[in-house]
Design a protein that fits this description.
With 619 residues, the chain is α/β, with parallel strands linked by helices. Helix content is 35%, strand content 17%. The N terminus is likely disordered.
Length: 619
């Protein structure tokens, strides 16, 4: 930093990590753009606005083009560097990508408006960040190397200081301490920052979640020990699993050696705006986004907690959150103490959920868990439990000891051919590379003019979906009496339906719940808007699983691959389906050997555990 710059610089997180941590990453672009002019006037060192979980959520839930969002934000804030979070060789997905995909992704992110790339690897395996960092420098942008901070028997201050030196040697412009779970304490922060400042010559940047309730003290100690930049979130999106409040930290350092020089009144205007915006997203609020010192044990990062709660809700297991939080440290130890940050937080967290929900450890193992235990994500610092590894890997699977991406052939051309004319740009190809099934669904809806984001609390059920209600057959607000207990029911909205299931957002005694309704009859409106009940017919329905040979899903989810067809010969243990649940892909294996007699699903279908998905005739 030059002498002309302020003693303390600030990166604002409201447009990415603030709402990712507290609102499951659901803030829409339409609620960002009106305040961008004021954000651009503040004088932040950078504004984090892209990357992390935003890319996935834009496609999956918000039905926004992530690339067009980036361009819009850059146009709206031309004077402030835009920052993104990039997972090195993982980019923004959940696997490693070939070098040509990484290079092209960085090129296009830079071209579309990213100025600062915070690049990290979940395993702190620096072999996985070199290509991305080099490409950032090739584009003339700021490369910020990030240490994924964690606490374990094998992670020491000496280790973290050595990582800092290696990032500087790679050519990074700044160095970040990424404390994604809020594990830093004031004393450890003082020691770590002091040692890093003595070891490296580039500016030091601190990212620390407030989950444990000590983040403000951590930032205070960090700045006094020489930290140059801190991450904060405007107050309505701060605290708990998010970050210290921007206004509070500006006020804390005002008038002293580290005065930020930022306008507190302008910040309060921005805060007033976001205070109203947050109210719109209350259905995405989680009960586990306040101060929670359990994070010092389970180490779940801020952005993961609210998403984990939503994932458990999808499994009808939200009441088992405490069991999952107790299981996570055990899984993490089995996996060699990886830092818990995307994607390892999802891999460890999802495996913990499966261990709890299935009632038996490692009964269900995701594809991502198998890849992790085989070394395809990198080298863990600690020792992997050999019994767990043997459960996940077959006899012919060898553990990867080279840079995982060295196993990958260039894939950009193949991806381009694979998606064909469904992609309208190279950005579409890259979106498809990140999230194939979700991107294809988005492209189809975009091309048909049918992009509809999931509803907010205030949004009514669309008229096209309430024809039965308008005919007086299905009221949207009513009382229900069950076993003598009366419940007030109000239908707030509905989500995107599969062929048979539609999610409805229902308020029960003022508590919002998501329920899935299975359609068994077809309601046909007449020209005058009434319902012709004579035309109602029984819809298709999967049979319930009854035989040991029936293929079923171990959890509710979405079919992303069907590997067999009627007449296929299969052996017990063959992967016949892949089900996506909790953002992880779970292979479904044939329970017996035989011939596929019937297939009741196709890609994109939503399934439940009690359904027969494939019927197998045993030999």
């Amino acid at each position: 930093m030059t002498s002309k710059q302020r003693k303390l610089a600030i990166t604002e997180l409201a447009l990415r990590d603030g709402h990712q941590s507290l609102l499951a990453t659901r803030m829409r672009l339409d609620d960002m753009l009106p305040i961008c002019d004021k954000l651009d006037q503040v004088g932040f060192w950078s504004i984090e606005a892209w990357g992390g979980a935003t890319f996935d959520t834009c496609l999956r839930y918000l039905k926004e083009g992530p690339w067009s969002r980036l361009r819009s934000l850059k146009k709206a804030m031309p004077n402030t560097p835009l920052q993104m979070l990039l997972r090195g060789q993982n980019l923004l997905g959940y696997r490693h990508y070939a070098d040509d995909v990484v290079q092209k992704f960085v090129d296009m992110a830079a071209a579309n408006g990213v100025d600062v790339f915070r690049v990290f690897d979940a395993m702190n395996d620096l072999r996985n960040v070199r290509v991305a960092i080099h490409q950032v420098k090739e584009n003339g942008k700021i490369a910020e190397g990030a240490i994924s901070y964690t606490v374990s028997p094998v992670h020491t201050l000496d280790y973290f200081v050595d990582l800092g030196r290696q990032f500087e040697d790679m050519g990074c412009d700044t160095l970040a301490i990424k404390d994604m779970a809020g594990l830093l304490t004031p004393q450890v922060t003082k020691d770590l920052v002091s040692r890093l400042k003595a070891a490296v010559n580039i500016p030091l940047h601190l990212h620390c979640h407030a989950t444990a309730g000590v983040a403000e003290m951590v930032q205070w100690e960090a700045v006094h020990a020489g930290c140059d930049i801190i991450d904060t979130a405007i107050s309505p999106l701060s605290g708990g699993t998010s970050h210290p409040a921007t206004e509070s930290m500006v006020a804390a350092f005002a008038g002293g050696e580290w005065d930020t020089g930022l306008d507190l009144e302008l910040l309060q205007e921005i805060a007033a705006y976001f205070r109203e915006v947050r109210k719109k997203y209350r259905r995405f609020e989680s009960d586990v986004t306040g101060v929670d010192t359990r994070v010092l044990i389970n180490q779940i990062p801020g952005g993961m907690i609210s998403n984990l709660a939503n994932q458990l809700r999808d499994q009808n297991a939200l009441d088992r959150m405490d069991e999952v939080l107790e299981e996570i440290p055990r899984v993490r130890k089995d996996f060699g103490y990886p830092p818990l940050v995307t994607p390892t937080s999802q891999i460890v967290g999802t495996q913990a959920v499966l261990n709890v929900v299935a009632g038996k450890k490692y009964k269900i193992i995701t594809n991502e868990t198998r890849d992790y235990l085989q070394g395809k994500y990198g080298r863990p610092l600690g020792e992997v439990n050999p019994e767990v590894r043997s459960k996940a890997l077959s006899d012919h699977d060898s553990v990867v000891d080279i840079r995982p991406a060295d196993l990958l052939a260039p894939e950009l051309d193949a991806l381009t051919r694979e998606i064909g004319d469904r992609a309208k740009s190279i950005e579409d190809v890259l979106s498809y590379a990140m999230f194939p099934a979700i991107a294809l669904e988005y492209f189809e809806e975009r091309d048909s003019g049918n992009l509809k984001p999931e509803p907010l609390d205030e949004e009514a059920v669309p008229a096209t979906e309430t024809v039965a209600a308008s005919a007086g057959l299905a009221p949207t607000e009513f009382n229900v009496t069950i076993h003598g207990e009366e419940y007030h029911i109000k239908i707030e909205g509905s989500g995107h339906a599969s062929e048979e299931l539609r999610p409805f957002f229902v308020r029960i005694d003022n508590v919002l719940e998501e329920v899935f309704v299975e359609t068994l009859t077809e309601v046909v409106p007449t020209q005058d808007g009434s319902i012709d009940s004579t035309k109602a017919s029984r819809g298709s329905k999967r049979p319930k699983a009854r035989e040991d040979s029936d293929v079923t899903s171990p959890m509710p989810g979405r079919i992303v691959a069907v590997n067999v067809e009627v007449g296929s010969s299969i052996s017990a243990g063959d992967t016949v389906l892949v089900v996506e649940a909790m953002k992880m892909e779970n292979p479904v294996h044939a329970p017996v050997s035989g011939v596929v007699e019937e297939v009741f699903v196709r890609e994109g279908d939503t399934v439940n555990p009690d359904e027969c998905l494939i019927r197998v005739k045993t030999e």
